[in-house]
Amino acid sequence: xxxxxxxxxxxxxxxxxxxxxxxxxxxxxxxxxxxxxxxxxxxxxxxxxxxxxxxxxxxxxxxxxxxxxxxxxxxxxxxxxxxxxxxxxxxxxxxxxxxxxxxxxxxxxxxxxxxxxxxxxxxxxxxxxxxxxxxxxxxxxxxxxxxxxxxxxxxxxxxxxxxxxxxxxxxxxxxxxxxxxxxxxxxxxxxxxxxxxxxxxxxxxxxxxxxxxxxxxxxxxxxxxxxxxxxxxxxxxxxxxxxxxxxxxxxxxxxxxxxxxxxxxxxxxxxxxxxxxxxxxxxx
Length: 284
Ligand code: AMP
Description:
Layout: E1 2-4, H1 7-19, E2 23-29, H2 35-44, E3 49-55, H3 75-85, E4 89-91, H4 95-98, H5 119-122, H6 126-141, E5 145-149, H7 153-165, E6 171-175, H8 195-201, H9 203-216, H10 221-234, E7 238-246, E8 259-268, E9 271-280
Parallel strand pairs: 1-4, 2-3, 2-5, 3-4, 5-6
Antiparallel strand pairs: 7-8, 8-9
Helix pairs in contact: 6-7, 9-10
The protein binds adenosine monophosphate.
Adenosine monophosphate binds next to helix 2 and strand 5.
């Protein structure tokens, strides 16, 4: 596996591969890799494919009181996992190249509407940080295809919108959420949970499943959401939001909408957890 730090090194290697007719596949990450991350890479592996993974803890997507400083950084273990998986190139960007004048001075990519609701409402500036860094990484790596996890459902839709709006020549594919045996969605932030909180955390997915069941069975969605909120609160979660939305644009469902997603964000102690489940309702 090649490991590069500079834009110039990555560009040169990608140009060589493209000249050989190889397809460039890309997975951007913030590292501390778990089975969820690795599943995205597995999804892209193939005969004529050169697989590039980036690890970069992007300062622009962290709020002032968020965990940029303490976000787990485990480069040696990550690098071993990627090598074993058969990744061709690990790109470890330098902040001096991603934000030459510092994150605050960077040109930004804003996805209006979609980036302002749900996660965007709770974490102002978060999706601008994500869209900006993904845009820059795409410009450096110039992938034919890139994979994002459905675990971060709103992020996936924002990336799709950015790529469509800016006519970026990248195919975006998604991969399903990988979970722990008890149903908790894998996340680097799960390690912030205490042992007791970790046991409770699995209830988040259970409550979402109940909401999906209620909504699928035609229960009034306001009532179903109130019920789900009460269930989360009874399990010691501090509820940020739990909602049912349209899959495509995260708008409030209207009669006739069938492709839906239940999304939730909660705090358990100091740890913020998100999860979602896509589902379909039969309106006939
Ligand atoms: P992160 O390192 O948290 O920025 O995540 C990098 C990529 O991995 C994103 O596309 C995430 O959606 C994806 N990802 C994170 N956790 C999971 C998971 N449990 N299952 C599937 N994909 C995931």
